[in-house]
Amino acid sequence: MPGPRKKKCFIRNCGSGLSGQATSFFRLPVKDENRLAAFLEFNGDPLLRNLPSAKLLQLRICDLHFEEKFIYRLPRCTKLTYNAIPTLCRPPPLDIGMHAEPQRNLTSFSPIPQASNNVTETTTPLTNGVDQCRSIQNVDAEPADSIMPITGNNDLPFNYETPKRSKINDMSTPSNIMPSKSIAKRVLLSNQKSILGSLGISRRDLTP
């Protein structure tokens, strides 16, 4: 069967209990918060402060770290006084970088730019943009009649449309239109005079 487990001092770099030297070990004053803080501070390891009480009760500290005035040496046991705190054989300072959480380089982060509240409001109505577009479209505009279509090889454009033929009745005088009676009578009399004149006969000669 394995022998009893050897006790070891929880103070850093302390070899008590491992070298076989006969020493006395004491529990940590877990119920006395002020003394417990002094014990943990003497060790110098900040991780011990995060241990629960059940783990702290398992730790031991040897008598080499206490002055004789804090120790009761009795024939059967050795005890500490009610106000005993470790003061001897303090370990060297612990390198904080071994256990400290790496700090973020805050200078490498640039702050997020905040949106500016100074928003420039436009007072130009939207109708101005529409009018401006219309004015641009009307620049150098020509009438539709003046635009010549694209022509081919012929003289006339390919889309040239011949004018529609007007109705004959609109362009000529109707054949059924007769001259008035007075005009017809005058024409007839003038014709008679010319005929009688050519024959040397007058209208009196024809009167009975």
From TrEMBL:
Give the THAP-type domain ranges.
Answer: 1-89
Query: Keywords assigned by UniProt?
Result: DNA-binding, Metal-binding, Zinc, Zinc-finger
Q: Which domain of life is it from?
A: Eukaryota
Please verify whether the record's keywords include Transport: no
- Report residue spans for region: Disordered: 108-127
Any one GO MF term held by the record is:
zinc ion binding
The molecule here is called THAP-type domain-containing protein
UniProt organism field: Lygus hesperus (Western plant bug)
